[in-house]
């Protein structure tokens, strides 16, 4: 498994927002102060990764996923500029700094892409998963065991990390499953079950189904492990709350759908280049009215968010990124045995694609979002490995063991 001095700062870059949210709740620090410290830590960690990576190889590796991300970033800058020039928003002094902050999150993508192009990143991924699991378990179990009292909702336990903790836990669960760390899988599953969160559980299921569908050589193993997991869940009382919520789900009356419908109305106001970041809260600022209508204050569907905030221009760029990541990710899963620790890489890929396509019920492209940093960072890892795979194909080389 790859190692090097760049791994620890890479993990810091990925999990800094997670610790920032924890500090916000535990120490009750002002959000602006927490964001400043968080971004400063991420910037220092990014420079440390870049400064300690192996020297660049003479061959420059290129990835279509990286190009798609650059296109997306450029489109976000363009649509934001057009919203400003057209004077669609009157709160430009507020939303322009927010756009700068959201763009800062893409640092995780570009830094991890560069790292994955030049060195094996599986150890960094695994240490990130361990850190996410440790902090998330402390958050959820603390409230469950009544050691702490931060956030509990009708038998559901989240702790100081809030309800987004279930989404963060999906990354280690899928990676552990794919790399056959079954004890850690069980711990993750129990902690997620205590949150009673339906959508993260469905995304995990989608990731495993994708793995079985496109994986080569290990389909039977993954299918058997999945069957054992289903049996264990069925027999365990820990998963009762989650099972009841899943069975009670009615898509036609979902508050996520009403929130998405509201986002479409915002999109219709400016369909070409949108209405800027956080447009839904700008046009519908009344919390009381949203609660009465069963809607969320922020857009839960990433696709609708892109339409509302950046119009067709930003939506097209985001869709191009998602499709490119899907093509590259599936190619990696089918050829993952060309890399060391292919199970970890498979886990990263199927988790990422599940989050990009299936997660349309929880916002992640937000200022200070710890799920967003994990998604963008893992997308960078996939992009870097895909670049290596494309180069090895062209040269007839084996992609294993770093850049060749």
Output the keywords:
404 residues, mainly alpha, two-stranded antiparallel ribbon, 17 helices, 2 strands, 1% strand, disordered C terminus
User: End-to-end distance, in Å?
Assistant: 16 Å
Q: Please give the number of β-strands.
A: 2
Count of DSSP helices? Answer: 17
Q: Using the CA coordinates, give the radius of gyration.
A: 21 Å
Order of helices and strands: HHHHHHEEHHHHHHHHHHH
Structural class, judged by helices and strands? mainly alpha
Query: Sheet with the most strands?
Result: 2 strands, antiparallel
Instruction: Indicate the low-confidence ranges by residue numbers.
Output: 234-238, 249-253, 398-404
Strands of the widest sheet, in order across it, are 1-2
Shape: globular
Strand content of the residues, in percent? under 5%
Relative helix content: over 70%
| Global mean pLDDT | 85
Walk me through what this model shows.
The protein is mostly helical and 404 residues long. Helices cover 71% and strands 1% of the residues. The chain has 17 helices and 2 strands. It has a two-stranded antiparallel ribbon with strand order 1-2. α1 runs antiparallel to α17, α2 packs parallel to α5 and α3 runs antiparallel to α4. It is globular, with a radius of gyration of 21 Å. The chain starts with 6 loop residues before the first helix and ends in a 9-residue tail after the last helix.
